[in-house]
Amino acid sequence: MSFSSVADTRTALETAGYICTREIATVVFLAACTQKPVLVEGPAGVGKTELAKAVSHSLNRQMIRLQCYEGLDEAKALYEWEYAKQLLYTQIVKDKISEVVSGAANLPDAVDCIAGQEDAFFSERFMLPRPLLKAIRSDAPVVLLVDEVDKSDPEFEAFLLEVLSDHQVTIPELGTLKAVHIPFVVLTSNSYRDMSDALKRRCLHLYIDYPDVQTELAIVRKKVPGIADGLARQMVDAMARIRRMDLKKIPSISETLDWAHALIALQVETLSPQAVADTLNVICKHREDARQVRDQARQVVNFS
Amino acid sequence: MIDLILQFVACARAADLRISTAEVLDCLAQIPLVDLLDERQVNAVMRANFAKSRREQHRFDHLYHLFFHELQVDEDVADAGSLAIHSDAIRDSLKAVEGSHPELAAISDFIAGDPSAYLQLLREIQTDGDSRRQGPGSNLGALVRRFPVLRALDRAAELVDRFLAGHRDEIHWETRQQVQRHLKRRMAVARNLLTREEVPDTPLIRKQPTGDERKKGIGDLAFNALSPSEVIRLRETIASLVRKLKDTADLRYAARSRGILDAKKTLRRAARYQGVPVEIVFRKKPPRKARLVVLCDISGSVWSSARFMLNMLYSLQECFDRVRSFVFVAEVAEVTRFFENHTVDRAIEKVLTEAGIDYSASTDYGLMLRQFRRLHMDAVNKKTTVIVIGDGRSNYANPEVRIVEEIRSRCRRLIWLNPETEQFWYTGDSEMRTYQSICNEVRPCGNLNQLSAFIKDLML
Ligand SMILES: Nc1ncnc2c1ncn2[C@@H]1O[C@H](COP(=O)(O)OP(=O)(O)O)[C@@H](O)[C@H]1O
Ligand SMILES: [Mg+2]
Fold this sequence. Notes:
Oligomer: heterodimer
Largest sheet of chain B: 6 strands, mixed
CATH superfamily of the largest domain in chain B: von Willebrand factor, type A domain
Low-confidence stretches of chain A: none
Number of domains of chain B: 3
Helix content of chain A: 40-55%
Order of helices and strands of chain A: HHEHEHEHHHEHEHEEEHEHHHHHHH
Strand content of chain B: 5-15%
Mean pLDDT of chain A: 89
Bound molecules: adenosine-5'-diphosphate, magnesium ion
CATH topology of the largest domain in chain B: Rossmann fold
Radius of gyration of chain B: 28 Å
Distance between the termini of chain A: 52 Å
Shape of chain A: elongated
Largest sheet of chain A: 5 strands, parallel
CATH topology of the largest domain in chain A: Rossmann fold
CATH architecture of the largest domain in chain B: 3-Layer(aba) Sandwich
Number of strands of chain B: 6
Order of helices and strands of chain B: HHHHHHHHHHHEHEEHHHEHEHEH
Number of strands of chain A: 9
Largest interface: A-B, 33 and 37 residues
Distance between the termini of chain B: 39 Å
Strand content of chain A: 5-15%
Radius of gyration of chain A: 26 Å
Structural class of chain B: alpha/beta
CATH superfamily of the largest domain in chain A: P-loop containing nucleotide triphosphate hydrolases
């Protein structure tokens, strides 16, 4: 499966449940053609993670996710040796080991004998692959989502960059492992910190902002199929007004969708100031934000 | 299309958008993949390759609009033909006036519809500026090179007016007005391309929708005119700036310091694991960090800037080798220990209450310098960067130039930060002119943008 044009990409993503602008479709299409990673930035909840999922759906590829956090290191991202398994095997094959060292005259000789066999224990059999290794060693091409990369440490970013540019990793005991297929890589960031220039240079850049009214309406219709048309429209308009207020945390698409579900559950048919006040905690997470929206509920629903 | 993109890149670089050659090549490789007739696709390709942060996107959008809309689409005037004739005539007359002036010639071509020479000029300004850029604070190259062009633009405007006035009788007044409007627009575009429009460059700073006074980013607000709520916002901004600066520094160190295997340490640690070298230790080569001595004038208005500087410097302490700080009005006192024993905010409060100097004294740089020389000169050696923050207003007392010279010769660099607006530097009792000639560098430091630019240069 692959995309044939920007328009085709857009339809494919839409079929996978993701409504997108032409800019998003263009960047995804380019990334698919050129096998370059995409760095997606934008506020929380605008659909960065969802985009990777939609791509994996529409290309019919497995998605492998590497969630970043402070302190994430190579071992967690790449591979770990399964000590327990190694230990277990040594116990089981104890007799065999005695056999191997039986001919040894002294301790150094015995150590040499065992060293000769260590390949048996440091092989792929005892390796626990983590997302990065999985992604490049997978037999079928995959989508690799490196989520919230801005939360990782700069050292890890430097390491990631190496993997992304060379499409290979070096494991001291095994040598260099090359990518079987180059994965479709999506990196997401909430701009908690700036990514390095080197990383940016390797990537196509995509900034996803809060959606415009038309796009958001389409998303609501897609994700909340039962919603009455009038209500959806009112909601999306109200959301646009709320986003223009000076809030601590601007509500995102996820809040819009939660809101839609809440309104339906309360069997609201038209949006009134009262309905806004009743469902406020879905939209605003901060108390002061909620107060501001409540105070301006009439303007929010355009009641004059 | 390729030519157009290359021209755009030249132009964007001249306007300080950083685009690497690799990115240009990527973009050119990708352009054939999309539908060239759909502008949004073309725009998306360029944007994805040339503007790799939110900040840069704003600038990119601005330049893109200028270049592909204002510059390319010719006027929607009815009589395009006669417009061209007159534009050409004006171009020729402009070129005739000053044949040897390349800037003016390029501008004449530009307003007559051929932008290549002008864009080339912009590009030269850019590369020229780059090659002259060296060390902190001397990125003036590009700026200086812009002046002749700006002058030529003014000159061109004048000549156009004169031409039109001179040919009053030959050109119908309506056409004349049209021509004038058209040329004005072109010149505005030329000017815009040269002096990029400033966009607030910290996305962290959200616009306050109500206060229209707050249009300017917090980075531009003068330190000495802040409301309490702005002080709080400024602190938050500084905190996140500090975080970013630290990340940048860490990244640099991480990239550089992956040294060779430290066999001794590796073996010593291996002992813990029955001799198996589980942890492999690399020798780090610590990059050179600056050692700082800071001298702060804490009288009156200077303090409002100095405290923010102390705040940033000490928040970034681990990025420097050692920071020693001294404050003065007339007498000087060391306050380093406050910062060693307290949090940064607490220490800054203590500076004002417990440093043990007379705040009501009138400022005297000379006395301060004599005292500093007597008591603390050992703090200054070849490894130290000395930073003085002050307005240089010394109530007409002896400026003790000798001591400043002595400090300069003992230290690595001597930098003077002045929080006053540059216009006032050389007025009244200010000794700035005297001190300026001695320092390695003098910078204004009256708002957060200036301060953070300085500290960034200092660290990197
Ligand atoms: N363009 C879109 N089309 C469909 N659903 C979307 C879109 N954008 C966001 N969503 C929905 O919004 C929610 C939040 O998206 P998510 O990808 O988790 O945000 P982010 O990763 O940017 O923080 C998801 O439940 C997703 O279904
Ligand atoms: Mg996410």
